[in-house]
Amino acid sequence: MRLLFLILVLIQSLFALNYEISSNKIANGKTALLQFKHNINRAYENVELLGWKFKVFDNRVLLPISYYAKPKKVVAIVHYRDYGKEKTQTINLEVIDGGYAKEKIQVQKSKVQLSKKDKKRAAKEYKEANEIYTTISEKNYLKSKFIMPLHSKITSLFGKARVYNNTLKGYHSGTDFRAKVGTPLVATNDGVVVLVKDRFYSGGSVIIDHGQGVYSCYYHMSKFDVRVGEHVKKNQRIGLSGVSGRVTGPHLHFSARVGGIQVDPLQLIDLLNKNILKD
Ligand SMILES: [Zn+2]
Hints:
Blueprint: H1 2-15, E1 19-21, E2 25-27, E3 31-36, E4 42-49, E5 52-55, E6 60-64, E7 72-82, E8 85-96, E9 102-105, H2 116-133, E10 154-156, E11 161-164, E12 167-171, E13 175-178, E14 184-186, E15 191-199, E16 203-211, E17 214-224, E18 231-232, E19 237-241, E20 251-258, E21 261-263, H3 265-275
Parallel strand pairs: 2-8, 9-11
Antiparallel strand pairs: 1-3, 3-6, 4-5, 4-7, 7-8, 10-13, 11-12, 13-20, 14-19, 15-16, 15-18, 16-17, 17-19, 17-20, 20-21
Zinc ion (ZN) binds next to loops.
């Protein structure tokens, strides 16, 4: 009887999903790392979470949580194959409140009305960027730890909520670094340049694809040193900081996307540097 029980437990453990997660509680705007134990007869495919699907690469997957996700218990569905047979298993997670600061702004109405032309341009650029972010390249360009795009004081963190007349109207989508016009900026890691453009809101913009759904973005630049399609190395100069786009003063706005979702760039870098990447 006892032997039978042991055998059952053993069989079950052979088929159960073996994984490690950076944290079961993930704040909105942050990313978690889910790593599966290698199993010769098993192929991990993707993980469904909050209506999104994230592809598993090399037995691991990044789970980004949208800034707008509400705190609650959620279920991640892991899709995998055992000996080619389709299977699923759920993992219980919890979205917690990121506790971001709020910036309350009382305005009459929108005082800054965009012209029809500007509105059209901004919408087109938004669509173009989204197409980039939701394109997941199979290749992983990351070979070593991320570095900062410049060494300077952080002037505004990711996530500060912008509340107009008591309604959440947006949030700070990246991390701002102090940078006077003309400060050299470097690629935070290896990758392929996928966008180099002067845009309405973000001004001189560079986007780098680091592979497998991870992108880094550099905004308000004054000069570009890279071209679309170019492979860049970590610490390679990509251009100069500036004051272009809709800004009140010169700085670098640095942001990141994972699997199409905007996340805190510094937390993402920290997560990857601590858990996966080596020096
Ligand atoms: Zn910013």
